Amino acid sequence: MMAIKRNVYLAQWSPKTPSMPYVYLPYSVGCIWAYADTQKEITDNYQLKDIFFLTKDPIDVINDMDNPYVFGISCYVWNWNYNLEVIRLLKQKYPQCYVIAGGPHIPNDDPYFFRKYPNIDATIHQEGELAFTDLLKCQIGLMSIDDTHGISYPSESNDVIRMSGSNRIPDLSVLPSPYLSGLFDGMMAMYKDDPDIIINGIIETNRGCPYRCTFCDWGGITYNKLKKINLERVFAEIDWFSENEFDLVLGVDANFGILYDRDMEIAEYLVKKRNENGYPNYFDTSWAKNNSTKTLSIAKVLADGNMLKSFMISIQTTNETTLSAIERKSMEVSDFNNLNTRAKKLNVPIATEIILGLPCETYLSWKIGLVDLLLHDVNVSINPLVLLPNAEMFEDEYRKRYGIETANINSWTNHNIKEYNETVIGTNSMSVIELKRTWAFTWFIIGLELHGFTKFIAKYLNKQWGISHSRFYDEIINLSKSEESVLHKHYQRLQEHTNNHNFHLLVSFSGYKDLVKDVGVSHRNDFYHEMKSFIKFLVPSMPTDEISGLVKFQEMSLLRFNEEYPISGDFNYNFKEFLTDDETHISKTHHYKFTGNEQTDTQSIIKWSEYIIGTRLIRGWENNIE
Ligand code: SF4
Questions:
Q1: Residue to mutate, 211, 225, 252, 258, ligand 1, most ligand atoms under 8 Å from C-beta
Q2: Ligand 1 atom closest to Cα of 220?
Q3: Helices (H) and strands (E) in the chain, counts
Q4: How far apart are CA 379 and CA 449, in angstroms?
Q5: Is-contact 464 543, C-beta < 8 A?
Q6: Which residue CA neighbors atom 2 of ligand 1 most closely?
Q7: 132, 181, 339, 417 - which has most CB atoms within 10 Å?
């Protein structure tokens, strides 16, 4: 007689924003089950009933379960509270269900964890494949919990019992691929024709990170040794993504390019598949920060194959003292401007990320660094600093050393369940008030410069009239304080958000929507009219025809909503050449033709604004100029 198998459910909720259809396959829990499924003791006794990855009303998750015996959840900053709500409801209906929580959000050493979260029965620290299988075996008496490693479970009084040792898997070749084992085939079939869901793939070619950045929960003692996934599996997974017509494959290595020869082979294989089959369209990843010449050559292969949206080298800060404080000094990121120049020469779309709120950063060091990046035409993304439970920065000693002050700020929302991140609101080098002021400067400069609204004006005034970007945007903030200004309501909103430390919201996609809609479409004429008197105020001696020509050039360079392109205009100066070539001097009149760009056909103001924000790292706002 066949034994009745116990039902297993797994969940790894994809991050998703309401306006975007993109979601990610639940790769981590997929790996966990793909491995468990190779073990006869498991397949004889358990069956996987479902993997959840799209959030819905938590009660519907429970209603979709049939007598769950084990529920395994992957936890991170965007789904922690949602997970807690799901398991609260789960335990109400199925109190005997054994709940296992893993993922980067599970703290390695919180002695009160099970008192705070009594609905969780066991936690897995770091890699989950072997530990999850062991816990399933323990549940049916095939293994003693004393023989497990790297897991925690509660004592009768809900103290943490932590099993020593590590879960680091010595040989990753024992792990089957969840893609190749067919685990996701049903999901792919179910959402293939759903216009509201575009599923992105995740590929892992190695595990571990040799660095120990203090804000990160990835590197560190346990994970610092790099382990490779064999290339045959990597190539076969790329074949699978190609056959299944994936738009984007996200590489989740910590430092793609660190294994140069191998990673070059992977890049070449991705391009080969795209050329053969048209898919995957794009490959995105976290790039290695060292050996930038070599890494750039890999990015070049992807860029030439039209697979690279952005060669994102995350420098996090340009301030040397901060680099030491966060233990990134060895990464050779300080010469980013040089890399930027080389990448541009090779037509590789380069970008960077920086974090606001890091230790030792001051208002001035941040401002100098940010302005310098923008002056070098670097496309930059800003993130607020968040303390992650397994990062060194989370520890009391580190917080005290750098005077880190935090607040719990809502930064994600899943079906009305708010997720909170412990966000840095001040340090001993930047007070709470100074950090708010820095955010205000940052928001304005990103909002107006990176979406193209004032980029040419600021650059021209700097090159021709010596007005620094720093002063230009400081004065714009002053201008926005006036009730008459087009920017005033954005200033007010900014004040409200900075007062509540809503930094995530400020730099999110939606944080710029109103500004882009207003300045780019609804009040565009008023804004550029205001710019003329603003320039006159900044440079009283600048001739009026020069001001008018500059503002006209700026406005016409920026993609218009609902415009019939091409458009053209006569200009009293050679603005384009002057602004794009350091050697060219301002001279003679010029006629320019503005031919739009491939996205001139936007259907609504909202879509237009979304396009401008979504493509700012590749200057989607910019018209072609002849
Ligand atoms: S931030 Fe990147 S390089 Fe630094 S420890 Fe984390 S994964 Fe490694």
A1: 211
A2: 5
A3: 24, 20
A4: 10
A5: no
A6: 254
A7: 132
**CB 365, CB 322: distance < 8 Å:** yes
Alpha-helix runs per DSSP H in 197-259: 231-243
Q: Is the CB of 216 under 6 A from ligand 1?
A: yes
Query: Is 213 close to ligand 1, i.e. is its CB under 6 Å away?
Result: yes
Q: DSSP string spanning 483-531?
A: TTSTTHHHHHHHHHHHHTT-HHHHHSTGGGHHHHHIIIIITHHHHHHHH
Cα–Cα dist 238/234, whole Å: 6
Q: Which atom of ligand 1 is nearest to the CA of 215?
A: 1
The Å distance, Cα 208 to ligand 1 centre, comes to 9
Whole-number pLDDT of residue 169: 81
For ligand 1, whether the C-beta of 385 sits within 6 Å is no
What is the Cα–Cα distance from 429 to 358, expressed in whole angstroms? 9
Is the CB–ligand 1 distance for residue 254 below 6 Å? yes
Nearest CA owner, ligand 1 atom 3: 211
The answer to whether 518 touches 491, Cβ cutoff 8 Å, is: no
Residue among 287, 204, 169 nearest 28 (CA): 204
Whole-Å CA distances, 164 to 149, 395, 612:
6, 21, 51
Ligand 1 pocket test, candidate residues 209, 224, 295, most atoms within 8 A of CB: 209
Q: Is residue 209 within 6 Å of ligand 1 at its C-beta?
A: yes
Ligand 1 site, residue 257, Cβ cutoff 6 A: no
Write down the pTM of the prediction. Answer: 0.92
112 backbone dihedrals φ, ψ, rounded to 5°: -105, 10
Q: Which domains does the chain have, with CATH numbers?
A: 6-169 (3.40.50.280), 535-625 (no CATH)
- Give me ligand 1 centre to Cα 201, in Å: 21
User: For residue 217, which atom of ligand 1 is closest to its CA?
Assistant: 6
Say whether 155 sits in a helix, a strand or coil: coil
**What is the structure's pLDDT at 614?**
86
Atom of ligand 1 nearest to the CA of 254: 7
- Cβ atoms of residues 124 and 132 within 8 Å: yes
Dihedral sign, Cα of residue 194, residue 197, residue 200, residue 202: negative
Amino acid at 192: K
| Strands in 133-262 per DSSP E | 151-154, 160-162, 198-203, 206-207, 227-228, 248-256
**Nearest Cα to Cα of residue 72 among 149, 156, 140, 128:** 128
pLDDT at 335 (0 to 100): 75
Q: What is the CA(222)–ligand 1 centre distance, in A?
A: 13
Q: What is the mean pLDDT of each run of 10 residues along the chain (626 residues)?
A: 86 80 94 97 97 96 98 96 98 98 93 97 93 97 94 96 80 92 95 89 94 84 78 97 96 95 98 97 92 91 96 92 88 75 93 96 96 88 94 96 97 89 97 97 95 96 95 97 97 94 86 94 97 98 96 97 92 91 81 82 83 87 93
Is 219 touching ligand 1 by the criterion CB < 6 Å? yes
**How many Å apart are CA 90 and CA 300, to the nearest integer?**
49
DSSP-based three-state secondary structure for 123: strand
Residues 6 and 512: their CA atoms lie apart, in Å, by: 49
